[in-house]
Automatic annotation (TrEMBL):
Residues 419-448 are annotated as: Disordered. This is Ion transport domain-containing protein. It comes from the Eukaryota. GO terms for molecular function: calcium channel activity. Keywords: Coiled coil, Membrane, Repeat, Transmembrane, Transmembrane helix. The lineage of its organism: Eukaryota, Metazoa, Ecdysozoa, Nematoda, Chromadorea. The chain crosses the membrane at residues 141-167, 213-232, 260-279, 299-326.
Length: 448
């Protein structure tokens, strides 16, 4: 509620300086100003807001005036009544803002309390052990990072009147807090029987498969992006030489190395229409001496050959390799039917870190029993009633195997007793298979 009750329309109005109205999804632009449109280029709302927040003058008249002096008399008008600081307004805007006030205070207090509890846990178990345990729970790590973002929002909101970039930064941190806090629910679902293995699959795929794939993928991506960056740079120079420097007949979609990397990344997920069209309309003339017809054939063959190699090695081969890696991880974890029990035990052990060492020792003495005469050696006692409905297929097979082994052992013991009974001497009782006890004859003499 602290984030959902925010006045989003007012925030959009302030960040865009009241330039976006209704349902517009993009703003016209050109090379010099946002107010005049250009024929082929548009900025998205996020790009427009970022440029407005970082390049233009502050929206507030007080913040724009560099000679203003902040005093106790005008500080309320500068900070509280400024449009840049509209998030400080909780009155006169509906009941949602009162809910936001209470929710924001609760979120801040609980974040401070949680940080204090974490500091006590680190003191009890040690910093190295605490971090070693924390690394096994990525959802918990994300949850702890959200506390830092919550604390950072306070000074950023206090500096809201300086420029609109502060408001934009606060909204970015708020989005990150919501995402990181939502991931914390995965920590509790990993102990459930039907969800726990899938949560572990997500962690394993992200930490192993995706990391190895991105390492290999980045090598190909950077290499191909720089190759296409050189080609598109040559095409841009040829277009300007033919149609003039101010011409927009041919647009270079790879004008920077970073843009080349992002464009090729987008192309790997299937969007290559614009990229292919730009290649097809290139005006480069590197081989004029060979002739236009032969040049076009050879040069286009070179470009399209590079394009085909990229599509084969990146879009087809490597992404199918990633799918195969994730499938193997999924099958490996799904075959382990008791994985959710191990996750359940890990969650319990992690929750025990919040207890003091003496409290953990007392709890251990309650659920454990001593082994033999040595009271210092204790074991965990589990009493569970199994039925055919609650047992898994693997447990049923294991129980049947134990019953077969027990029957074989009883059958072997019976055969051994019958064999000993058949070979007993006259006048003696049949001996057991374990101990041959001495017997006496009728006259009372001892037989050895």
């Amino acid at each position: 509620m602290a984030f959902m009750c925010r006045p989003f329309s007012m925030t959009t109005k302030v960040l865009t300086h009241d330039d976006i109205h209704g349902s517009n999804t993009s703003m016209p632009c050109n090379n010099t100003s946002f107010d005049n449109s250009c024929p082929n280029t548009t900025y998205t709302i996020f790009d427009y807001m970022m440029l407005k927040a970082t390049t233009l003058q502050p929206f507030s008249s007080y913040a724009a005036n560099k000679q203003v002096t902040f005093t106790l008399q005008n500080i309320e008008e500068v900070w509280y009544r400024s449009d840049l600081c509209h998030l400080w307004r909780y009155t006169g805007l509906g009941w949602q803002q009162y809910v936001r006030l209470v929710a924001e205070l609760m979120v801040l207090l609980m974040a401070l309390l949680q940080i204090a509890c974490d500091a006590m846990d680190i003191k009890n178990v040690g910093q190295k052990r605490w971090w070693r345990v924390m690394k096994s729970f990525p959802a918990k790590v994300a949850y702890k990072i959200s506390f830092i973002f919550i604390i950072l929002i306070v000074p950023i909101r206090l500096a809201c009147a300086l420029c609109s970039a502060m408001l934009l930064l606060e909204n970015i941190l708020s989005l990150m807090i919501v995402l990181l806090t939502g991931a914390h629910f995965l920590f509790y679902t990993r102990a459930l029987k039907f969800i726990g293995p899938f949560v572990l699959m997500i962690y394993t795929i992200l930490s192993r498969d995706i990391s190895r794939f991105m390492l290999i993928y980045s090598i190909f991506l950077i290499g191909f992006s720089q190759s296409f960056y050189v080609i598109f740079g040559a095409c841009e120079r040829a277009s300007k030489a033919k149609y003039g420097k101010q011409s927009t007949r041919w647009e270079n979609i790879l004008d920077t190395p970073f843009e080349a990397i992002m464009r090729l990344f987008i192309m790997t997920i299937g969007e290559f229409t614009i990229f292919y069209r730009s290649l097809n309309t290139c005006e480069e003339r590197m081989m004029q001496m060979i002739g236009k017809v032969s040049f076009n054939f050879i040069y286009n063959f070179k470009i399209f050959f590079l394009f085909t190699i990229f599509e084969l090695f990146i879009s087809i081969m490597q992404f199918n390799l990633l799918i195969a890696m994730m499938t193997r991880t999924y099958e490996t974890i799904s075959r382990t039917s008791t994985e959710w029990k191990r996750q359940w035990a890990q969650v319990i052990l992690f929750l025990e870190l919040s207890l003091k060492p003496k409290e953990r020792l007392i709890a251990m003495l309650k659920y454990s029993r001593p082994i033999g005469t040595d009271k210092t050696k204790r074991s965990f006692v589990v009493a569970r009633k199994n039925t055919s409905e609650t047992m898994s297929q693997t447990e049923k097979q294991l129980l049947e195997q134990q019953e077969r082994d027990l029957r074989e052992e009883k059958r072997a013991l019976l055969k051994r007793r019958l064999k000993d009974f058949a070979h007993t001497p006259d006048g003696r009782r049949p001996m057991t298979s374990y101990l041959s006890t001495p017997s006496r004859n009728i006259n009372g003499e001892k037989n050895e």
